[in-house]
Amino acid sequence: MSAGMRHLGLGVTDIERSARFYSTWFGFDHGPRQVYPDGTVFLRNVDGFDLALHKTASGAGTLPEFFHFGFGTTAPDEVRAARSRMQDAGVEIFDEVEEPDLVSFKCTDPDGYPVELYWE
Fold it and tell me: What distance in Å separates the CA atoms of residue 68 and residue 112, rounded to the nearest whole number?
């Protein structure tokens, strides 16, 4: 089988709040939203990857310690600039790494999911 990962589904407590977060910080604002009968909203990024947001009561809930998902950049300064903008906007930043071959940080989305932005 030749299949690539095409979407990620997240349970969120407020679809519009999460849609703003992922559109603002991670570019999920390409093309029209797709809304399914059950209320699930698909957002797409420039690479054609879809983020499916579905309303749930608890958002992230209890996640395994290492759980996170990440977005890669093409240059370390992109990571640094995004980190600065997000910190200024009050987004929780943690696990910052500054090494010769890796610049990264993780942030928390509105429902508590850990999201990494990195260059390596």
Answer: 10
Cα(79)–Cα(114) distance, integer angstroms: 16
- Burial (CB < 10 A; 0-12, 13-18, 19+), residue 51, is buried
Phi, psi angle pair for 74, to nearest 5°:
-95, -10
Show Cβ contacts of residue 66 under 8 Å, excluding neighbours closer than 6 positions.
none
Q: For the whole prediction, is pTM greater than 0.85?
A: yes
Q: What confidence tens digit (pLDDT) does each residue in 56-91 have?
A: 987 777 788 899 999 999 999 999 999 999 999 999
* CA–CA gap between residue 51 and residue 53 (Å, rounded): 6
The residues, ordered by sequence, that sit 6+ positions from 97 with a Cβ below 8 Å of its Cβ are 103, 104, 105, 118
Domains and CATH numbers, the chain: 7-58 (3.10.180.10), 67-120 (3.10.180.10)
